[in-house]
């Protein structure tokens, strides 16, 4: 009997203790709510922001990052972008093989597609030039004289011309464009992009003959005037010889009389010595 009474008393004490705990917890909660409501709104907002930041930092794989936090595309050092016209022309590969260009040769996807389209052309000449360009690119990559890389286009849903894409991506990587297209060269220059025209480079490298200079030349054919003979210097510069129509097929000494500059280059006029 005594034990039963003792057990009942313990149960009563536990029940009273539990009720007191709940009462205290209720009072504490009410007190906290009262104190939070008394805080300034700005302070509450600041605390909420700080808590949110801590949660995001602890859960990086769960909370997706904003697009602005994405890594920027890595810039290509000393990027050399080849235009379709330069690839088809082929002289740029001779310049590279001589070691005059250093860096990374970059072929954008749009240029490669345009070159492939030319290589698949129904026109025999265009097809051969396109195929030769693709072959030259493949040889350059295998030779390992210079690093060659293919760069996919970033369309972003926008349709742009090949030249515009080339200028934009060259400017993005602070590279240079090599081309044989005069209009592309000027357009790139206007937009603040470095462009090198192979034709302009070739003209600068031609022999700088001046009036009064003596040359040894082989006359290959007659000129526009039936009395003229025409020959060429080693760099391809045309040399017109007065009164030399009868010298076709022979080598003669001449003296330069005048030099004419044209859009295609220089033409030298001379007289037989």
TrEMBL record:
Q: Where is the signal peptide?
A: none
Q: Which cofactor does it need?
A: Mg(2+)
Which of UniProt's keywords are assigned here? Answer: Hydrolase, Magnesium, Nuclease
What residue stretches are annotated with the TRAM domain?
208-269
UniProt entry tagged with the keyword 4Fe-4S = no
- Residue ranges crossing the lipid bilayer per the database entry: none
- Pfam families, per database record: PIN
Question: Residue ranges of region Disordered?
Answer: 1-29
Q: Looking at the keywords, is Metal-binding present? A: no
- State the InterPro entries in the record: Nucleic_acid_metab_PIN/TRAM, PIN-like_dom_sf, PIN_dom, TRAM_dom
Where composition is biased (Basic and acidic residues), the residues are: 1-28
* Gene Ontology MF, one: hydrolase activity
Enumerate the PANTHER family for this protein.
AAA FAMILY ATPASE (PTHR11603), MEMBRANE PROTEIN (PTHR11603:SF147)
Q: Under which name does UniProt file this protein?
A: PIN/TRAM domain protein
- Which source organism does the UniProt entry give? Candidatus Woesebacteria bacterium GW2011_GWB1_38_5b
Show the taxonomic lineage. Answer: Bacteria, Candidatus Woeseibacteriota
């Amino acid at each position: 009997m005594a034990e039963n009474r003792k057990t009942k008393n313990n149960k009563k004490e536990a029940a009273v203790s539990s009720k007191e705990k709940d009462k205290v917890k209720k009072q504490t909660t009410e007190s906290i709510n009262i104190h939070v409501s008394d805080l300034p709104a700005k302070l509450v907002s600041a605390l909420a922001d700080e808590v949110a930041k801590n949660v995001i930092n602890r859960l990086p794989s769960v909370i997706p990052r904003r697009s602005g936090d994405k890594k920027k595309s890595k810039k290509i050092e000393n990027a050399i972008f080849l235009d379709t016209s330069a690839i088809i022309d082929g002289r740029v590969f001779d310049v590279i093989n001589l070691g005059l260009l250093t860096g990374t040769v970059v072929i954008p996807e749009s240029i490669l597609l345009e070159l492939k389209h030319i290589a698949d052309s129904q026109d025999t000449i265009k097809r051969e030039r396109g195929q030769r360009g693709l072959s030259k690119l493949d040889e350059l990559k295998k030779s390992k004289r210079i690093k060659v890389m293919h760069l996919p286009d970033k369309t972003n849903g926008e349709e742009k011309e090949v030249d515009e894409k080339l200028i934009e991506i060259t400017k993005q990587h602070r590279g240079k464009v090599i081309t044989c297209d005069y209009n592309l060269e000027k357009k790139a220059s206007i937009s603040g992009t470095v462009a090198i025209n192979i034709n302009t480079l070739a003209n600068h490298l031609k022999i700088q003959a001046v009036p009064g200079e003596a040359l040894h030349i082989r006359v290959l054919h007659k000129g526009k005037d039936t009395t003229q003979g025409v020959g060429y210097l080693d760099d391809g510069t045309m040399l017109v010889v007065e009164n030399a129509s009868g010298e076709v097929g022979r080598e003669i000494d001449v003296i330069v009389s005048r030099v004419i500059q044209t859009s295609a280059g220089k033409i030298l006029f001379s007289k037989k010595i």
